[in-house]
Amino acid sequence: MKQKCYAVIGGGINGLAVARQLMLDHPGATVTVFEKESAVAQHQSGHNSGVVHAGLYYEPGGLKARLCRRGVALLKAYCRENGLPYDECGKVVVALKEEELPRLDAIYQKAVANAVPGVRLVDQNELREIEPNCIGIRALHSPQTAIVSYAEIAGRIAAEIEEKGGSVRLNSPVFRLIERESRVYVELTGGEVHGQAFDYAIACCGLQSDRLAQRSGDELTPKIVPFFGQYYVIDEAFKTHVKGLIYPVPDPRFPFLGVHFTKRIDGQMTVGPNAFISFGRENYGGLSFSVRDMADFLGYSGFWKFASKNLGASVRELKTVVSESAFVREAAKYVPSLGHVGVAPAVRGIRAQAMEGDGSLVDDFVIRKQGNIAHIRNAPSPGATSSLAIAEYIVREVMPQSAPSLALV
Fold first, then answer.
1. Rounded to 5 degrees, what angle do the CA atoms 87, 122, 274 make?
2. Higher per-residue pLDDT: 391 or 286
3. Is residue 247 situated within a structural domain?
4. Which end of the chain is more exposed for a tag (fewer CB within 10 A), N or C?
C-alpha cells in the first residue's frame, strides 16, 4: 500500500505533537511541518506559565476533561523518557470568603468526576501545612498538578520528528490550503505553492487559526480575539514564600481565572497573569500594535457583545495592567507577606481566545474536519497540557473519518 503524505501547519507544541503521532502510527508516511518562524514554539508554546493542568475546571465528558487527563499521563511519560524536567509541585485553589465556598465545592465535584488523582478539600489549618504563608478559609488541593517547560518539550519533539525522517520547514508561512481531487496543496505566503501534493493536512495555527481556516474554505466562526496576560517574577529573596501554585476560586462574573502565584520550572516564582485585550495577535513586547489585528476584533460584533457583558472584568483587569502595585496587591490577598514584594516583568503570553458571534467564549476544544483537511479552531488552556492527547485524538479519531464534514466540539 502506498504510504500517505501529511502536511502539518504550525510548529507549536500541538502541531509538532500531531506530526510526531502521525509518524508513530504510520511508519513510513511522509510528514512535513510548515512553520512560519525561524524556530519552533515561538508563540503560545513559548509564552505561557508552564503549568501541567490536572483537570479541575473542565466539564466532565467534554474534550478538555478527557484530553487533559490523558495528556497529563502522556506528557509526564514523555518528559521522563527524554530527560526533561517535570515538577509535581502541587496546587491549591483558595477561598477567602464564605460566598466562594459553593463554587469551590463545584470545582471539587468536577475534579472528582474527572478522576484527578489525590484531589481533596482542606481547611485553613491543612492549607497552612501545604502553603505556610497562604491565608484562606478553605482550599482545594491538587498534589499532582505540575510544571514543565513547554518550549523545551516542543524542541525535543521537533528533533524527534526529524530523527524519524520527517521534515520541519522553518521560515515557511502558509497562506491557505487548497483541496483538489482529494489532494491538498499548500500555498505559501507570496503565492508559491509547495511542490508536493499531500493526502491530508492538519492546521494547528493558534493565534492565526481562524484566518487560515477561512482562507482554506472553512466556516467564519469561531473567530480569534487575542487577550494578553502579563507575568512578573517576584524578588528572588521572597520566592520561598510560595511552595507551589496558589490560585483564586474563579468568579463566574469574569471570563478568566484571575491573578495567581505560579512556580516556574527554573525555580523562580511568578505572579500573574492579568487578562486584557491585546492590540496585536503577536504583540509579546506590549509596546507595539497591529492595525490589522485591532480592526479585526473592533469590526467583529461578537467582540462588542462580549465587552458589554464584561465591563466589570475589564475595569478590574485594567487596574492590574496600568499599575504594578495593584497587580501585586491582587495576588497578595492570598499571601499577605508578599504585599510589597518587588517584581520584574517576565513572560507575556497571548491567549488565542475563540469567540462566537453572540459574544460567548468557546469553552471546549474545537477540532473541525472537512474533506482531507482538519483545523484546530480552539485549543486554549489546557491545550499545551493536552497536546500529546490532542495529537492522538486527531490522528486516531478525526482523520480516519470518511464523512465529508465532521465538527467536533
1. 60
2. 391
3. yes
4. N
Helix (DSSP H) and strand (DSSP E) numbers for the chain: 11, 20
CATH number of the domain encompassing residue 308: 3.30.9.10
Asked whether residue 68 is assigned to any structural domain, the reply reads no
The model's confidence at residue 253, banded by pLDDT at 50, 70 and 90, is low
CATH code, domain carrying 18? 3.50.50.60
How many separate domains does the chain show?
2
- Summarize the confidence of residues 321-329 as an average pLDDT: 80
How far CA 361 is from CA of 39, 245, 256, 339, 368, in Å, comes to: 30, 26, 10, 33, 17
Cell numbers placing 316: 478590574
- Which pLDDT tens digit goes with each residue over 47-73? 999 999 999 999 999 999 999 999 999
Alpha-carbon span 396 to 108, nearest angstrom: 31
Q: Are 63 and 364 in contact (CB under 8 A)?
A: yes
Torsional sign, CA 95, 98, 104, 105: positive
Q: Is the full-model pTM beyond 0.90?
A: yes
The residue segments making up the domain with residue 228 are 87-146+224-355
In a domain, 55, yes or no: no
Residue 79 belongs to a domain: no
Please, are residues 140 and 104 in contact by the beta-carbon 8 Å criterion?
A: yes
Are both 96 and 241 inside the same structural domain?
yes
Q: Considering the chain, what is the average pLDDT of its residues?
A: 93
What's the rounded Cα separation, in Å, for the pair 161 and 33?
Answer: 9
Please indicate, yes or no, whether residues 253 and 349 belong to a single structural domain of this protein.
Answer: yes
Give per-residue pLDDT as tens, 145-177.
999 999 999 999 999 999 999 999 999 999 999
The mean pLDDT of 66-93, rounded to a whole number, is 98
Asked if pLDDT for residue 407 goes beyond 50, the answer is no
User: Do residues 339 and 232 both lie within one domain?
Assistant: yes
DSSP 8-state class, residue 58: S
263 in the same domain as 129? yes
pLDDT computed for residue 9 by the predictor = 98
- Residues 281, 290 contacting (CB under 8 angstroms): yes
